[in-house]
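Budget justification aside, the reviewers requested a transparent look at the raw inputs and outputs of the sequence design task funded under Objective 1. We therefore reproduce one unedited record. The lines immediately below are the structure tokens for a 95-residue chain.
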């Protein structure tokens, strides 16, 4: 009988873990497709006055990393590959 009382609790706990890990996987781009790059880069570069170079490098970074950080600036920690790709001079390659 004790195992029957724990079943609903175990089920709820399992569902919570599943939802948590699926959100984490989505945040790290596991469901990201190459077709998602253009709209996300368009938004990422929407606030800059240098749209062409921003789009060029954003699309290049996105195609390699399959991730674009949220927002128009910053938040690069969400996409480690995007964040860590540097130029020869050691500056960030991805906008």
């Amino acid at each position: 009988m004790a195992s029957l009382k724990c079943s609903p609790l175990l089920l709820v706990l399992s569902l919570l873990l599943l939802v948590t890990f699926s959100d984490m996987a989505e945040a790290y781009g596991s469901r990201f497709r190459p077709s998602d790059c253009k709209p996300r880069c368009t938004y990422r570069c929407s606030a800059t006055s240098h749209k062409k170079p921003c789009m060029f490098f954003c699309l290049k970074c996105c195609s390699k990393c399959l991730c674009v950080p949220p927002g128009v600036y910053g938040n690069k920690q969400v996409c480690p590959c995007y964040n860590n790709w540097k130029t020869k001079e050691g500056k960030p390659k991805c906008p």
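The longest helix spans residues 2-27. The chain has four helices and no strands. Computational costs for records of this kind are itemized in the attached budget.
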